């Protein structure tokens, strides 16, 4: 029976409970948020109720055929759960990969349909982008998205209003690691994460599963969290 469980776990790419010992980063607790028009992330909104030393891992811009699988592997290896803010067009292109993210125990929200600077759009265009990204999410997952992150964190009044009416939580960030510069090495990203953690002390961390340097660096980044004694909090929605 144990052998079968191990084989199934290996096929699913997820660590078994037995593998998730104290040597792993792990997920310390889950916060279940209501499906409501709230907005979190101290960068521009209310602070999530996190204790000092607690962090929420978030990954934007995927799913990416090239890079998301490596991110999933690194998270699975450390038994850490995250939230992925997916671009609608990417979900439509990679629905199976999008579903795999959720199957492995992570949460998923949307991050616009085309990752445009929405503030430069007319209100109609903004609402159309939201409609398309929600439809892509629903087509892949069979349910409405519970959460939204603005591309470039550029919130617009029209979309804030529409999201509130649709009971979709706006998820901003508390800290990032500026992980979109093509020349970034694992050492640079790890250093940036360490410094920004020291400054913030806790919070929602923004990273990008669609970016190669981030995917490559993630095992090291998770080790930085573990070495510094941070605890991973997983976000779920009712
Ligand atoms: Zn983005």
Set down the secondary structure blueprint.
Blueprint (H helix, E strand, L loop, with lengths): L1 H11 L16 E5 L5 E2 L13 E7 L7 H10 L5 E4 L1 H6 L1 H9 L3 E4 L12 H19 L5 E2 L8 H9 L3 E3 L3 E2 L9 H15 L2 E6 L3 H16 L3 E7 L1
Parallel strand pairs: 1-10, 2-7, 3-4, 3-9, 3-10, 4-5, 6-7, 8-9
Helix pairs in contact: 2-8, 7-8
The structure holds zinc ion (ZN).
Quick rundown:
By secondary structure, this protein is an alpha/beta fold. It has helices spanning 2-12, 68-77, 88-93, 95-103, 123-141, 157-165, 186-200, 212-227, and strands at 29-33, 39-40, 54-60, 83-86, 107-110, 147-148, 169-171, 175-176, 203-208, 231-237.
Task: Please tell me about this protein's structure.
This protein has 238 residues and is α/β, with parallel strands linked by helices. It has one domain (21-237): Glycoside hydrolase/deacetylase (TIM Barrel), CATH 3.20.20.370. It has helices at residues 2-12, 68-77, 88-93, 95-103, 123-141, 157-165, 186-200, 212-227, and strands at 29-33, 39-40, 54-60, 83-86, 107-110, 147-148, 169-171, 175-176, 203-208, 231-237. The longest helix is centred in the middle third of the chain and has 19 residues, at 123-141. It is globular and about 50 Å long. The protein starts with a helix and ends with a strand. The mean pLDDT is 92. The structure holds zinc ion. Zinc ion (ZN) binds at residues 60-61, 111, 115, 151. Residues 60-61, 111, 115, 151 line the site of zinc ion.
Give the number of domains. 1
**Tally of DSSP helical segments:** 8
List how many beta strands DSSP finds: 10
Within the CATH hierarchy, at the fold level, what is the topology? TIM Barrel
Tell me roughly what share of residues is in helical segments: 25-40%
Low-confidence stretches: none
Bound molecules: zinc ion
CATH level 4 superfamily: Glycoside hydrolase/deacetylase
The sequence of SSEs as H and E is: HEEEHEHHEHEHEEHEHE
CATH class: Alpha Beta
Into which percentage range does the β-strand content fall?
15-25%
Which secondary-structure class do the elements indicate? alpha/beta
User: Roughly how many Å apart are the termini?
Assistant: 33 Å
CATH architecture level-2 label: Alpha-Beta Barrel
Mean pLDDT: 92
Largest pleated sheet: 7 strands, parallel
Keywords: Hydrolase, Metal-binding, Signal
InterPro entries: Glyco_hydro/deAcase_b/a-brl, NODB_dom, Polysacc_deacetylase_ArnD
GO biological process, one term: carbohydrate metabolic process
Pfam family, one: Polysacc_deac_1
């Amino acid at each position: 029976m144990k052998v079968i469980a191990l084989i199934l776990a290996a096929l699913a790419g997820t660590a078994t409970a037995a593998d998730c010992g104290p040597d792993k980063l792990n997920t310390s607790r889950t916060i279940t948020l209501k499906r409501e028009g709230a907005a979190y992330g101290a960068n521009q909104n209310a602070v999530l109720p996190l204790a000092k030393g607690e962090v929420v891992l978030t990954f934007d811009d995927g799913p990416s055929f090239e890079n998301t699988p490596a991110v999933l592997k690194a998270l699975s290896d450390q038994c850490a759960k995250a939230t992925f803010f997916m671009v609608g067009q990417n979900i439509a292109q990679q629905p199976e990969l999008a579903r795999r993210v959720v199957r492995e125990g992570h949460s998923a929200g949307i991050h616009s349909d085309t990752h445009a600077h929405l503030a430069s759009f007319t209100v109609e265009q903004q609402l159309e982008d939201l409609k398309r990204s929600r439809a892509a999410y629903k087509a892949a997952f069979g349910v409405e998205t519970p959460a939204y992150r603005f591309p470039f964190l550029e919130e617009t009044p029209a979309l804030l209003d529409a999201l509130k009416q649709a009971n979709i939580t706006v998820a901003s960030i508390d800290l990032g690691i500026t992980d979109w510069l093509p020349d970034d090495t694992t050492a640079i990203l790890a250093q940036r994460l360490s410094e920004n953690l020291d400054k913030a002390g806790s919070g929602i961390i923004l990273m990008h599963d669609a970016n190669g340097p981030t995917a490559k660096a993630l095992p090291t980044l998770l080790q930085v969290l573990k070495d510094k004694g941070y605890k991973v909090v997983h976000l779920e929605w009712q």
